[in-house]
Amino acid sequence: MNKKIGVLGCGWLGFPLAKYLVANKHHVYGSTTSIDKLDLLKENGIHPFHISLSTTEIKGDIQSFLSNIEILIINIPPRLRGNNTESFVDKITLLHAEVKKSPVKKLIFISSTSVYGNVDGTVTEATVPKPSTASGRQLLECEERFLSDESLNTTIIRFGGLIGPNRHPVTMLSKRSNLNNGDSPINIIHLDDCIHMISTIIENDYWNEVFNGVYPLHPSKKEYYTAEAQKRGLPAPDYLHNSSNNSNKIVINQNFIDKSHQLHTSIVS
């Protein structure tokens, strides 16, 4: 069944996601902070909107955007690095107020595994989040804002490190030496798998859920990034031997695995 879906934030993940949804016959509305990108969205079958969130206001016709859709995908990552200390929570608080005034009742909030913090061992959706960074703390607060709103059917996706076209950490790591955490497992996910997860949630009505989004294999950082550097003809990053900062954190997308198994069982039976 064709759905009316809004992608708030048509960037590295949001734009290919929107194109995929269009290709699957959904009516897609997409936002961008760049006026120059509006034509690109339109050319790809996406109804374009110029919308920008700040801590004090939302620029652009947010209500026209929201009034057209039944499902909202919020794909606006916090950018709390370097000197940027703005409140991501304030941005999302303003957005939540606008959503409350709109007909939107189903929502996907793109979050991060950073909400779990520096824990050791296996991490599933049942693990209690203990964020250790400003970004993780603010993401968790925003998650809770939407999840606690009983008027919304909210699903949270906590993605691991994102990789894909023109985005891979090894391009920066290959130039570095004396790196820590070489024996720590990786927790990453490819762009294509992100899109698959989101579309599966929409198609199967997996609402009021929390999902981790991480590739099921977890080689060590040293092993993985050395292999990825060799594939690209880059110098392998240099890791310290016997680093004391190694973590054993392995994030598992247990809920998505369970849902997929249940779906397969119901189809077979």
UniProtKB/TrEMBL annotation:
Highest rank taxon of the organism: Bacteria
Alphabetized Gene3D superfamilies for the sequence: NAD(P)-binding Rossmann-like Domain
Entry coiled-coil feature ranges: none
Alphabetized GO MF terms: aldehyde dehydrogenase (NAD+) activity
Record's GO cellular component terms: cytoplasm
InterPro entries hit by this protein: NAD(P)-bd_dom, NAD(P)-bd_dom_sf, NAD(P)-dependent_oxidoreduct
UniProt xrefs under Pfam families: NAD_binding_10
Ranges where the NAD(P)-binding domain occurs: 11-180
CDD domains: SDR_a4 (cd05266)
Protein name per its UniProtKB record: SDR family oxidoreductase
Lineage: Bacteria, Pseudomonadati, Bacteroidota, Flavobacteriia, Flavobacteriales
